[in-house]
Predict the structure.
Amino acid sequence: MRPTPSTCRNRILSKVIPLFAEKGYNRVTMREAAVEAGITAGSFYHHFPGKQALYLAAVKRAFAGRARDIRAALAGDAPPAERLRNLIHRFCLQLSRDPVFTRLIHREILDGDQGRLQLVVDAVFRDVFADVMGLCRELAPDFDPFLLCMSIVSLTVHHYQIAGMRKFLPGNRPEHDNPDIVAAHIVRLLIEGIGPRRDGAGTESFQGDLPL
Amino acid sequence: MRPTPSTCRNRILSKVIPLFAEKGYNRVTMREAAVEAGITAGSFYHHFPGKQALYLAAVKRAFAGRARDIRAALAGDAPPAERLRNLIHRFCLQLSRDPVFTRLIHREILDGDQGRLQLVVDAVFRDVFADVMGLCRELAPDFDPFLLCMSIVSLTVHHYQIAGMRKFLPGNRPEHDNPDIVAAHIVRLLIEGIGPRRDGAGTESFQGDLPL
DNA sequence: GTCTATAACATGATAGAC
DNA sequence: GTCTATCATGTTATAGAC
């Protein structure tokens, strides 16, 4: 029985995603990707109009499952703080489990030209980012929602992006890769902050001048 | 004063740093770097024992001025919260002013093999990281100092690392690149958190409570 | 002594012919 | 598939210019 076109597409994409993640868009040749996918370079153009379309489809697909998870964490009528907690736990779990997508985006940020960056954002991040920003508005109306959303992304993504370097920093321990521990830390930091407890007594609060 | 024999070393490094930042270690050849520095490939080996030493010297030098700044922000006997504030303001200022070093490290994280990562960490980050961790211990003894330190780095570094993509996200505004605004946001988030104020009073920004 | 150019070597990847 | 030519690249050796 002939394989359905979508399974063939899926097979190609699943082979090609790690390749893009490893080497980046520019350094992956269509010939190379073809070998990986088990077809010839020319056959690619039967499934995708060009290299960029192949790449976008790969990025989109790499994010598809994730986006469902994230959206699920954001939905529902739980209190906003609870939704935040769900979001960050799922996010950390995804990032720790499989670093390929993280690497893919890491590369895109570094090497992507403006046009492709815009395409990737529109195809993959725009809607999810807007959703998280909505949660931020609900959660902390007196914060700039864009900056707060960026901060949430930074706290989670960068911690795992930098994993390869983190190993060599003084004070690192194996549990710092554990998504439950990392997520709990981030949630607590976001909700409580590190400032002196306001119900506490001896608060040596800020009394300094501005720097510079 | 002696006519510093390292003048030409400095000249070489200043030419070579942007090259490594742009293309990464592996994709910069000694010949290419030589052309950029105005000498030939063989001549490099009078100044540096090899490519890796050249690279390490470049990374070290790119970080030298910064490390002084960071250390200055951490030193002194100001209250810890004010030192944190100084640290983050200077960090954001550096990151926004000149993206070359950010890019250099971004690349190293992505492409660096284990050996080189360890060398870079030992030569550049280890001590500064330990200092910031010291501040974290002082500031919030009930947090994991390593995770808190990572969070501080993530909040600042990642915001500027992702600048190229941030432009295309919904809700972005020019002021989100302004280091003063970004730093103020990060400091406030770290200190206060987004949770409900425990004294139930007003929710004005952190800056409003400062005696400026 | 300091810096540089030139040539050459060793290795690894790539491409093409058989 | 195998063998081989070719090329790119890190590196070394040597000698010349200031």
